Amino acid sequence: MDVFEAIKGRRSIRGFKPESISDADLEKILEAGISAPSAGNCQPWEFVIVRDQKIKQKLVQAARGQSFLAEAPVVIVICADVNRTASRYGERGRTLYCIQDTAAAAQNIHLAAYALGYGTCWVGAFDESAAAEAIKAPAGVRPLIMIPIGKPREKPKPTPRTPLRERIHQETF
Ligand SMILES: Cc1cc2nc3c(=O)[nH]c(=O)nc-3n(C[C@H](O)[C@H](O)[C@H](O)COP(=O)(O)O)c2cc1C
Question: Which parts of the sequence are annotated with region: Disordered (predicted)?
Fold first, then answer.
């Protein structure tokens, strides 16, 4: 699939069929994730692949009841090993770069999953310590994004965007 087709066609999916994901597809999707750029190529990302229903339920609770997380056959929890970037870039690495890096990996994952016929949703509204506890994240590893992934049970309409011309500034703001 053409990259522009994936960018334009992807939608947030919040309903999934029970059909599982093949290991080969999951690997391809995660490979797309780690192909993202990262500050100093520190690659702070860690991916926790959750298939266990009990752990998924804990993630739903952490995410204030967003039950569609548990409907997906797999939830990828993208974490940042903060010290990997902070040891090189200090405060800016800790508070900015490692977060941008995981976001870049997440977007690659969304697009690759869409290109392979899967639906995903970026889930960011969750209690970080509850999520960390659910996946037993070690100290210094922050769960930042949850991505449920599976065959879509819905086909949402495109969401609106503010026209580009209203967001572009020539030369200065
Ligand atoms: C940082 C971030 C956090 C988000 N958190 C949630 C979330 O917790 N739950 C949810 O259903 N959608 C969440 N979304 C998805 C947005 O609601 C969605 O991307 C937006 O409405 C545009 O729709 P689209 O993805 O279909 O283009 C989040 C997206 C981003 C980028």
Answer: 149-173
